[in-house]
Design goal:
- The longest helix is centred in the last third of the chain and has 13 residues.
- Strands 1-2-3-4-5-6-7-8 form an 8-stranded antiparallel beta barrel.
- β7 and β8 form a beta hairpin.
- It is α+β, with helices and mostly antiparallel strands.
- It is 15% helix and 40% strand.
- The protein contains 3 helices and 8 strands, in the order ααββββββββα.
- The N terminus is likely disordered.
- It has one domain: Lipocalin (Beta Barrel), CATH 2.40.128.20.
């Protein structure tokens, strides 16, 4: 992912104007912020976008330092051993107590801030479904880079039931 691709990722990943009415359902259940927004999540499914072509072995690491929450998104170019591409940003929980709606702000080129909002539509031990408010971009994550096929099928079915009508792609993850 080169610089223009990173900008495209941010701009198409969920920035919505106030006039846009959310189409995503409200998140199913609250998130325990301390455990959920900590550690590594592996991207097992996503909305296909041209800027993510060749992006495999995707991960999101949530970090807390001095009470501030941030994320580090990374993927590898073409193969799990390819060059790592990284994007970092600060996170702000938009609905404290529920902790299911988050704004990520990235500082790119000359420190220009770009934000994207995402919702945790549903989750349980070891998996989560993320989407932007208009359901144009979704991501399926697990704590395991190689989840059982039955779980991937269930999450795929569930995101469709939640209203996502687009295609999904399942990028290669790191080797076991």
């Amino acid at each position: 992912m080169k610089a223009p691709a990173l900008i495209a990722l941010l701009l198409t990943g969920g920035i919505a104007s106030a006039a846009d009415a959310p189409k995503a359902p409200e998140p199913a259940r609250p998130v325990d912020a301390a455990s959920f927004y900590a550690g590594r999540w592996y991207e097992i499914g996503r909305t296909p976008k041209s800027f993510s072509d060749g992006c495999v072995a995707g991960t999101t690491d949530f970090l807390t330092r001095d009470g501030a929450l941030s994320e580090r998104d990374a993927c590898r170019d073409k193969t799990p051993d390819g060059k790592e591409e990284v994007l970092t940003g600060s996170l702000k929980i938009l609905n404290p107590g529920q902790n299911t709606k988050v704004d990520a702000t990235y500082h790119i080129f000359l420190g220009i801030p770009v934000s994207r909002e995402f919702w945790v539509l549903d989750h349980a031990e070891g998996w989560a479904i993320f989407a932007n408010a208009d359901m144009k971009a979704v991501n399926l994550y697990t704590r395991d880079p190689h989840p059982a096929a039955a779980l991937v099928e269930r999450l795929t079915r569930q995101i469709k039931e939640l209203g996502y009508a687009g295609a999904l792609e399942f990028p290669t993850q790191s080797r076991p």
